[in-house]
Amino acid sequence: MYINQPPSRKSGLRTFLFVALILVVAGSSALAGAVTGGLIVKNIIENNQPAAQVLPVPAANDGQPQTQAITIIPTDVDSAVTSTVERVGPAVVTVLAAIPGQPGMFGISGGGESSGSGVIISAEGYILTNYHVIEGSTEVRVVLADGSERAAEVINYDDLDDLAVLKAEGEMPAVAPLGNSDQLKPGETVIAIGSPLGTFKNTVTVGVISATGRMIDIGNGYQMEDLIQTDAAINQGNSGGPLVNLAGEVVGINTIIVRGGGGAGRAVAEGLGFAIPANKVRIISEQIIANGYFARPYLGVRSQDVNPAIASRYNLPVEWGTYVFTVLPGSPAEKAGVQPDDIITAIGGQEINDQMSFANVLYSYGPNDSVEVQVFRNGETIALNVMLGEAKRN
User: Fold this and answer.
1) Catalytic residue annotation
2) Looking at domain 84-168, does it have CATH number 2.40.10.10?
3) Tens digit of pLDDT for each residue in 250-308?
4) Do domains 84-168 and 181-291 have the same CATH topology?
5) What is the pTM of this model?
6) Which of 5, 88, 124, 229 has the least CB density, counted as fewest CB within 10 Å?
């Protein structure tokens, strides 16, 4: 008896025929699949069908070849982004502002032209853009999405929040509605539309809301607050253009870009764009359209902001606030009893600190608001009731 006995000739023949049968079945299945796939492609081409997803039905696990049923699921090539751009794009304009020459040692220097973007917000021809786009201009024109140009009038502006309202005559090609910027959430898709470099008109870039409630110091003791941060590409010339959500609503007006790099020791940064929130835009623009100007509250003092460094240097009794040098005659501050050498530490319960400057606290109220002003005087805090006045900035 042999443990490793070689197979007989008859057994070897049976094995050979079995293997051959398997190869024939496998080849037939492959050929059938190829023919079926070819017929599907032919049918799609001949009938001009859209791209489809092919879902084979699994074969029954009984060892027998199965005919595959093919399910065709058409794919919609349209998207929320393209449809939003189609609706809002015609309401976006390029803003061209003529800047006069400036006097100098050798006479008047040559003027120039600044460019930015804007968005039509009413059928009457009112257009929003940034103040810095039209600052110092003598003439403003807007270029519509179809390439036609129209003269535009600067109705007024708010320089602190970098917003201006223009008006163009004639029928408007489209109007973009303002949305509710308070509902924005980080990660939400947004679209920026504008004319970067003044040349590439109605350029579309897509990104997300990176953050809300951002603050940027623009000098003069004022910080732009509640800005929307986005990574949608924004370049020079995009200023004043809309930031749009997928519902086709303007949720912000693009205003600032922050970039790093270009020098030793400087961090490199990209994708840092900021927009004025639509809710603030609505308040400012509605006042300008209705009254011809935007009024901020008036207190009537000349002062110097106090911080820990200044407090330490001049041995002041508080670290945060604003030191009053002068109280203007007849001002709300004088009527309420504010005196020189007072340090204002809070207005209406809002403290002045590293997060809220004096200007920002004051400008969070409106003309004719009655507020409590806290001042530090002779070692104690005194509360004064003030009826704020109205200050026309321009």
Assistant:
1) 132, 162, 239
2) yes
3) 999 999 888 765 555 555 566 789 999 999 999 899 999 999 999 889 999 999 999 99
4) yes
5) 0.70
6) 5
